[in-house]
Amino acid sequence: MTQPEWRPGQEPVPGQPLPPQYQQPPPVVYGQVGMPVEPVGPPRRVVDAGRLWAGGFATALVAALIAVAGILVARGVLKIPVLSPKEQGTWGNATTLTYALVAFGLGLIATGLIHALLISTPSPFNYFGWIMALATVVGVALPFTSGAALEAKIATAIINGLIGIAIWALTDSAARRSFKFVQPGVGLH
Q: Cα dist. 73→31, 51, 64 in Å?
């Protein structure tokens, strides 16, 4: 027996199956083994920690090199005694290494901060921007609280400002490329 030709708008014949294009798919029962899990709630942010911390390490290295380059330019080219007396020469003393290590550490601290903000706050980049802006202002203002010569204060403030801006921009950039949004219940691929 052949099936009658089905035309759109035509009532189905009782006892005859519907053509495939009019059949309903079987209902999906969520939560059963082998069945998809129904997404519940808004998408969540997932951080790729390896990528974030690799960018953070590179940022810390750049910050340390800015500190060394800034001190070399101030002392060697401009003859401004930044962080040590003129007798110490272009490289200065242990304070040059300490300054570079502190800049390196600040780069890593900024990475830890943005990581914590990414996993805990609703607007991590807004908070990070405010924190970095205020920290950079403190770093620029700090040399003016010392008893050093004015040109040393200005040179140190410029170096601190460059370090702060570099850490801010590079950490922000690395963080923006280190996360994605996923629906709850959807595996990470």
A: 65, 33, 14
